[in-house]
Amino acid sequence: MLLSSSGTRLCHEAGRCEAAFLACLRNYASTAAYLATRFPAIAVIGAGNYGEFREEDQMCCAWLAENLMDLGYQAADRHTLDIVHRWKDRPIGAWTSNKSAKYLRDSGQDEDLEFILQHVADLNAPCALKNHEVVIEGFPACAIHAAAGRGIYDA
């Protein structure tokens, strides 16, 4: 199950596209590498949260776009370049003073925040949206498990 205040709606809308992939701070690098070998043009869209393009989403989008640009893609506009430049060399914890991190701290989810900060680009798991389901490209569906809501999978 995917639960997100705005990500679920974005996934529903993206289901109409020819191809849609989901990336996060854990798989942005493998997603960029996978997409670059298969698609001549890629749109990077951040889901945001309650009408805000939160810093962790900006960072993930920026790092994904930067990887794509390193692989030969060009940004479509100045706004994309501005976001990439803003987050280019920032440390992973640069966003942890925002509302999302505050919510995790205030709700006793400090371990989740620490998990996020310690698991960056550690999954070789490009995730595609197919038939209203999220599947890891290159792995059979039966190999995908959810553990503690962290999307751990067995290969």
In words, what does this structure look like?
This protein has 6 helices and 3 strands. With 155 residues, the chain is mainly alpha-helical. It has a single domain (7-143), classed as Alpha-Beta Complex (putative 2-phosphosulfolactate phosphatase). Strands 1-2-3 form a 3-stranded antiparallel β-sheet, with no helix packed on it. The model is unreliable at 142-155 (pLDDT under 50).
Total helices: the number is 6
What is the name of the CATH architecture? Alpha-Beta Complex
- The topology string of helices and strands comes to HEHHHHHEE
The total number of structural domains is 1
What is the percent of helical residues?
Answer: 25-40%
> Tell me, what is the CATH class?
Alpha Beta
Q: What average pLDDT do the residues reach? A: 85
CATH superfamily: ComB-like
What kind of sheet is the major sheet?
3 strands, antiparallel
Which segments are poorly predicted (pLDDT under 50) over 5 or more consecutive residues?
A: 142-155
N/C terminus separation? 20 Å
What fraction of the residues are assigned to beta strands by DSSP? 5-15%
Overall strand count: 3
Structural class: mainly alpha
- Based on CA inertia axes, which overall geometry fits? globular
Strand arrangement, largest sheet? 1-2-3
